[in-house]
Fold this sequence. Notes:
3 domains, alpha/beta, Rossmann fold, globular, Beta-Lactamase, 13 strands
Amino acid sequence: MRQNWNLRELFTLALEAGGTSLHLNSALPAVAKTKGGLVPLTEQYLTPDDCEDIAATLSTQAVHRLKQESFYGLEPGICRYRAELYRQRDVISLIFKLAPWRLRPLEELGLPPNVPELLQARRGLILVCGPQGAGKSWTLAALLDYIHRQRSVRSLVLGDPLEFELEARLGMTTTQSVKQGHWEEALDQIEFSDVDVVALDDFPVRRTLERALELAEAGILVLATVRNALDVSSSLFELWTKHPAWLHHSLRERVSQALQAIIFQKLVAGMTDQEKFPATEIMLASPPMRHLIQEERFIQFYNSIQTGLNSGMHTLEQSLFELFRSGCIDEKTALSETRYPDDVRRSIGTWRSRD
């Protein structure tokens, strides 16, 4: 007899356990992935038929496909999720990346206080970068929500799949999930949409960067997330290295002129298993930084961002030190999450010597 699995209850159990994702696999219990590891949520084990039934409630088409299927969904009042369905040895497995039902406003994300100032721009390109699972999509949603709370604009959100929907605010927001391979077509339609702001969630850089730059150059504010970046300089480097070498120079020139700012973020563990805090690196497109981009002098980025603290820039190392000083993370975490542990260690030592 098949077990009647209730996704709503499983989502609730996963969130109560501090889970960021829910994993459903045959011959295993339902499992939540937390900062502290994998936590079983049920005593019962799922069967292949159970996984098929759960998948069928989400997407009847996915059940009959061998390829991976991903899409965004809502469980009203509980959570928002991104579902990944895939087959392994002809048995369906499911992964749900979970986020709270209520989208947190920008002011509650723990980002630097100067981030709202970046959104005063009416045109150009703002990138949100970071590794997978760093919360880039939710930061993108918060940035767009903040814009709509400040002024009346028409915006368009594209994603594959789209991971969020915004509440009604000033102006209008249109959301559209983009199927793989159809990004160029979706972006080509924007010029006929009369939009002020375009948000691109996890857009494929190789195929769509030039189109995104055209929108920014045409007077549209483009917000975009870039995945698997290590820091600000690697985020930029990835933009044109995925293109033919003969395009690199022109792309560097165009990016340097269109870019407004880059927000790099990663989530670091707090003092308890359920706490996570964003460690950030922010680069503003000042004239000196534009020049470094044009010349591809990335080796100078770190020092330039570090010395630009008074203008609103800061490095990941400076952010980690501030998290340590405020008691959000311990010294071990601060040192393990940095590229330059000596810089963080030096800042901590100087701070302690003043006490």
